[in-house]
Amino acid sequence: MALSPMDSPRSVPGPAKTLAAKTKALAVQNAASSPLSSGASTPTEGTMDLAEQMNDQTRKQFVTGARLGEGTYAIVYAGHYRHDPTRLVAIKKIKVNADYKDGVAMDAIREIKYLQELSHPNIIKLHAVFSTKDQNLSLVLEHLPLGDLEQLWKNKDVRYGGADIKAWACMLARAVWFCHKNFVLHRDIKGNNLLIAADGNVKLADFGLARSFADPFRPMTYNVITRFYRPPELLYGARYYGGAVDVWSMGVVFAELALREFFLPSETDIQQLSVICDVFGTPTEETWPGVSKLEFYTPPSNPSSRPQPLQFWRARFGILGDDGIELLRAMLTMDPKRRLTAQQVLEHRYWTNAPRPTEKEDLPKNGGGAKVMGEDLKRRGGEIESGRADKVARKLFG
Amino acid sequence: MRYTEDEVYRASSQFRLWSFTAEQLAAQRAETNKAAVERVKAAVHRQRAQRQKESVTGSESERNGSGVDNQAVNGVQKEVEYLTVAEEQKIVNHLAETLIKLGEHFRFPVEVVATGIQFLKRFYLYNSPMTYEPQLISRSSIFLANKTENHHLTAEKYAAGFPKTTAEQILAPEYLIIQALRFTFDVRHPFRGLKGGHMEMMAMAQGQGIAPEAHGRTAAEMQAEMLYLPVRVGGAQNRMTPEELASRITTAYTKASSILKHAAILTDAYFLYTPSQIWLSAHLIADEPLTAFYLSTKFPSPPTSSPQYNKLLTTLTFCKKLLLSHHSLSPSNSSASSEDEMKAKEAEQAAGIGALIKKLRHCRDPDKIDLVKLNKAVKRDAVQDGQLEEQKAKRRKMEREGFKKEADSFWGPELPKKE
Amino acid sequence: MSRPAQRVGATPTKRLAEDGGESPLSSGLRKLDLSSRSTNLSSASDICPVCKSSRYLNQNMKFLINPECYHKMCESCVDRIFSRGPAPCPIAGCKRTLRKVRFRDQTFEDLALEREVDIRRRIGKVFNKTQDDFETLKDYNNYLEIVEDCTWNLINKVDVEETEKRLQQFAAAQSQEEAEISGTSGTSTPRNYSTPDPSSRGLLKKSLGARHALDKSQSGASTPGANGDSDTLFTFKGLKKRIAPPPEKPYDPFGGWSTTPEYYVLQDFYDVGDWLNKSRDDPAHLAGGQDIRDFYTRALCDAFSGFGVFVEDEVAGRTPEDPVIATENAAVAAVSRDVNMDDVF
């Protein structure tokens, strides 16, 4: 990292002796004549402070390859460890947002903050972070080549059954459980934030909206979670909420896996509420104590919706079996107080009853499965394969 | 794997990257200091060389430089005096204390201030105040802490709270700080843990405590023992009413809480001990018999037979000593009854800091003075691929020197006055 | 119908059969090839040998066969003769008892071929070893040799009784061993893969896991002498001993993680008489689902986070740099010639 122009490694001049090279010449003189930091192994390192040196060392560990895609807030590259080209990574380079007046973007700060602390097989691994010459933060993330859960249920070429759904849902539930055990709310759980590793593991990614649980009387924003997955309490404007918001989103993802289409799609926040009420009934003080005190609550108009009967669930979610339907409905309980916690979700008998969840290696895979992965491994830096790769990148920015 | 409370802490970046033994901490600070001195030396040397060269070519305009190179003008190469590790620490700690006042001024929540101070201390573990101007860094640290602790604040609004400060100045060192923090933003504080301990002690006092894993104590036994806790260690039993006991627990909590908000965040406690040990030490200072009793409920009876317990107690004693070494808790401070004495002491301290700051002014790294320009330059360089023309370099140099003069007035009033 | 991938030690008689001799299959295949080109040319075969009615009179007439004797007759004869239960075959000279349920369409025009295919299918079910089950390729080929001999015997009706006996013994030995293995593996309850509701969208696909399990259970094999002492006819040389798969552990939804606290026992309510109690009853907190117990859990977890972690001991060996980075740096140094290669930063 060179902060001073004179320290830039690229400014070390060749034989050219124009006037313009004066400053550079001085830099060289400096490097040659001064007793620089003893620990420095190269002249360039000598002009860096310790933090810069550490950053540089981290940066040098990785080789960046093909650009996989670009989003509004980041560019994603393929990459690998320099000493071991078979250890693949994805490098997410956060763009400097000119419109954001408050320095480093909050998304980046949140994502780095929480991924540095959470280490679990079902949460995307952050290998390292480094900054580059142009002060862009780069996150070195786990390489997850097999797309995401949303792509999976959308891909009609992939056929899967109840045991497969159970395996995916369980991995999701573990990730959410682990976040909550560490008092982190993810606040953006959805199919395309659930990436699939080469070994079939599902990994929760994109912690750009995450935060830790708020202490009592510390309000939070209700404007989080992608709309289809947003729980009713947030739509009603609740500022004091807990892990239940993530459990609702998890329930919606679970339902989508079984349905193979969006479960609660809508165009606006208002419409989202009515879509929810159509399925679960309009909440009242009886079914959800305190709901009428929430900011955007409106008393049910006539006729108010009533919750759908069990047949509704059996007809749509038969593939989950009765246990699965019960779990799904318990995750999608309107009143967040009565909704299952992530711990209770994992304690549900659905997981241990037959069928046993498919082993992760045996799960159906998106696209060509091993073949796609093989192509991934084959591809070297510089070669760009559009199409599939772009999709992988898209999820990395959420 | 069993994810115990200890494993939770071992997984944290605070433990992985920011926990040290006392020796490691001292060694790192010494190395940082040494590297900074060499950097400044090199920079000064370079400037002098440049000056000589320019005076040879007859460029008179460069003669009115300031600071470090003033003495060099006539070839009298006086050696610069550099800050020692201890002096650097004094400056950083002084700034940390001003951050507490700053936090009060802006009404920041306690965890924002505490995080900001840890950011500052972490930053100066790998950087020297001689390289990066500490006041700028401290202001930016606490701004960054606002972001990481979910306390919304715009740079503009924050900058407006200081005289002659722009949002740009607040944001300029942000990347430097993030880099020096090794891209970790989570700081584990002892505040909530203290509350947790308080909750448990209250429950025990109410006869509702539960000892872990059947350590052989019932709720009633624990309550009974608590009601007879002596006032000080080794003192006689002291019968209290349940109300008296509850108020004693609350008093201890309040005192420990204040220690955590000052001594704990201002000393090196976060580097050397875990949050659990820090709050327990603070509580030990606040009410030793009560804390000792509470600890004993966490081990099989009798606790002294458990090596783990004895080890913990030794560690807590060291941590307690460290906390007590802070001047906010030193006996001389509390016994200084007369206000005059206090004021004299404060003035003395201020003078000491003033002298250090003066000294710092003479040994600053000239390359890193104007962070705003540097920050811009870096971004521009990224675009222009590091190619610089002489004119630009010259202009930048002049700007830098102009800024240096400005910096002197910048150091003036430490804090904005409250409206 | 497995032919050895590589012919090792085939017997002379065998080779004769393969090379010069005309097996019904090979001749049948030739006919099949022919018949595919000349469809519906048959005339004699269009008359039912039992009732003598002709397709000429009845366009919808359909012929069926029974793999018991492969005698062909029309559908209405089958209905008429066998609807009330098993009955002897009406073709003169054939006295086999036939059941209606086993009558089926003919696949091949040549009934000899039809029969051979059936025999091979039956034998294939019993002798279902793969190359992986044997120590060496030679052992495997020898095994295939024996299997082919059995098949040959049955097709050409040589030593039928004895061969059938061997077949049965082998099948019995296999199922016995299978029972033993599944008995030790502890999965005594058959896995009940719930069939998805047919009314739901077509996701009907048995999971791969289920299929694997099924495959395994079919590929049962006998170890030498496993079926006791009486029979040495089927002790194949070089057959690997089958090891029972390790018992499948019950599924753990938590993936092996547990979070039982070590230093405290969480209670439902802590009466500390301040703002905490207030938040417990605050309607905004209640309606939004912010649970005071989450705060309790967190406060207590924080209280003991690092309770037993002694920094002085645990980090003593560390260098200021992350140990991971340090080791990886060594590796980096080894290959650092191409530092600037394709490094976009």
Automatic annotation (TrEMBL), chain A:
**Residue ranges of the Protein kinase domain?**
62-351
Keyword terms of this UniProt record: ATP-binding, Kinase, Nucleotide-binding, Phosphoprotein, Serine/threonine-protein kinase, Transferase
Query: Pfam families recorded for this chain?
Result: Pkinase
Gene3D superfamilies annotated for this entry? Phosphorylase Kinase, domain 1, Transferase(Phosphotransferase) domain 1
**One Gene Ontology MF term:** cyclin-dependent protein serine/threonine kinase activity
**Annotated transmembrane regions:** none
Which segments carry the region annotation Disordered? 354-398
SMART domains in UniProt: S_TKc
* Gene Ontology, cellular component aspect: cytoplasm; transcription factor TFIIK complex
Active-site feature positions: 188 (proton acceptor)
Q: Mention one GO biological process in which this protein takes part, according to its record.
A: positive regulation of transcription by RNA polymerase II
Phosphoprotein as a keyword of this entry, yes or no, is yes
- Reaction(s) catalysed by this chain's protein: L-seryl-[protein] + ATP = O-phospho-L-seryl-[protein] + ADP + H(+); L-threonyl-[protein] + ATP = O-phospho-L-threonyl-[protein] + ADP + H(+)
Q: Which residues bind ATP?
A: 68-76, 92-93
Keyword Calcium assigned to the entry: answer is no
Composition-biased stretches (Basic and acidic residues):
373-398
UniProt record similarity statement: Belongs to the protein kinase superfamily. CMGC Ser/Thr protein kinase family. CDC2/CDKX subfamily.
The name this protein carries in UniProt is: Pkinase-domain-containing protein
Origin organism of this chain? Delitschia confertaspora ATCC 74209
UniProtKB/TrEMBL annotation, chain B:
Which keywords fit this entry according to its UniProt record?
A: Cyclin
Q: Does the keyword Disulfide bond apply?
A: no
A Pfam family it matches? Cyclin_C_2
Cite the Cyclin-like domain residue spans from the record.
97-179
Q: Outline the segment boundaries, as ranges, of region: Disordered.
A: 41-71, 381-419
The family classification in the record reads: Belongs to the cyclin family. Cyclin C subfamily.
- The protein in question is named RNA polymerase II holoenzyme cyclin-like subunit
Automatic annotation (TrEMBL), chain C:
Q: Which CDD domains match?
A: RING-HC_TFB3-like
Bias kind Polar residues: ranges: 182-198
Q: Name one GO cellular component term.
A: transcription factor TFIIK complex
Q: Which residues cross the membrane?
A: none
What are the boundaries of the signal sequence? none
- Where are the annotated segments for Disordered? 1-30, 169-202
Q: What protein name applies here? A: RNA polymerase II transcription factor B subunit 3
Native species: Delitschia confertaspora ATCC 74209
